[in-house]
Amino acid sequence: NSCFVPSGSFLISRVFRSFAFPMQDRSMAVIGRLTLKRFSRVLGSALVAAALDGAPPNLEVQVSSLDMDDECLIDRGSPRCALNALQLRATGTYQQQRQRQAKTDEESEVGCHTAQKGEKCYDVDIMWAKNDGMINHPEWYKGLTPDASVVDIQQFIYNSGSTACPRPCVAAKTPWCLEGAVAPRLWNPPSAGPAQNIKILTYNLFWWNLFNIRHGNGNSAGNLIKDNMAMPFDVMGFQECEDPETVLKPVGLLDTYEVFLGEHAICMAYNKKAWKLIVNGTEDVAEDMPTKYYGKRGVQWMRLQSLKTDKKLFFMNHHGPLSVNSGGQCGGEATAFNLMQVMAKHAQVGDVLVLVGDFNANAASLTVQTLWNHMVQAFAGKSWGGVDNIFTNVPMTNVVERKIMGDGGSDHDAIYTVVQVGETSLLKSQAESLVLQPPQSAKELTGTAKPGYEWQVFWCGRLEDNTEYSFDENAWSQKVTGQDAADPEHCCRVCQANQNCNSWLWKDFAVEAKGKQCIMSGAHPVSKKSTDGFVSGLTYIAAAQTAAESAQHALAKI
Predict the structure, then answer these.
(1) What value does the mean pLDDT of the chain take?
(2) In sequence order, what are the beta bridge partners of 312?
């Protein structure tokens, strides 16, 4: 559980996970000259620095899309970071998107701070980047040139995940994933025609650990799948997946399944003995919060035709944005709308619709609660509060089987469900044998799936990026700075650990704190507004209450 440099590699670990990077084999994202103490305060896209001569105070280099994990955790004063299969491929693009025109501190007194002469951020970090780093290593500063403004350079350093510079005060820009984010009208599958059962799997494979460190653990994931194939799976979605053949080939399943490796380390497969492919593709739908940034998040999709009944199936596989229960930069509602827009764009009316994945969002999130209003939640697992989900347009009465299969060596359980379409042969007793999933998912938030305080079992009830909650001034409140205000997740964590706290507000820069600040409140928010540089949220208990209310209106049929 420490960070050290053995010969030829870095080892970065988190409580129960460790991952080695052979330096000669992998391109490394570098934030130069970060001491362990400084690194321990870095989340998201910040990577341990290579000990390179002449490395700058803060810089970031584009890395392979399969070089990073999206579950990066730290404990107080100790780096605990898992690096795996994801994102940062579009670092340069992201930096450009986040660059904005400057405005003065007087125009925005909280949530940001533009560096001034005499401050370390300005005199050391920005000036080194401008006068040395960009000239000698332009490849480290994608989208920037030596004539870039001080504010643009500060924004770049801030986006790297380093704590050397606060977020500068700049004019907000509407994130791309909010544009056109509206709910489409979906449909029921056809009830006519011969009955057909469809078996659906979703499984986060924990690739960096299970395959890169443990070399497949004796094909434990593939064997878990094979052991649950008394009835073969029709479609499967994998997250944190770098090579689907590595999963299925050793257990003899490639003869049955056609596989696809998508963008953002997700994979999918279909049973080619039962279905034929019509068309497939990928599309981006969300983007991580800047404080836990790995890149954009998308879906891979395919439209299939049954060889037996000619029924059409539109299948989507998704790995959701971070932080957990935030919906990313654009929020949970927009992420849900964007997912459904992919269905409306590429599926056809009458298709059976199936959406699976590790949403990085459980029933406490606006992502799942928004989907409850438009689709049927057929099943949810219990990992991380229930982030593994299966949604469909098939009525709940036609969900005939659900199962948590076990983890197979991953840190997530594999789950599956079976739905029946067409002229159903289900008896009424069979159709009513399974309880509705949304109320059960809401209940689990404070039950067996509730979070803990340690990072390996922590998740926050709800986070809303660029959102400012207002609280009852008469309610209990407490302001926190230092490590407990290092980022929104730290703020939520200290709030959830305090029995007086129900909601919280995190500021990227507060004048009175001269840095980051966390404000905890014993009340529920009375209002909220969009404010750049703020993140607000609820404890898991408060979020579970809103989930229980929302679940009462969840659809059992479209």
Answers:
(1) 82
(2) 305
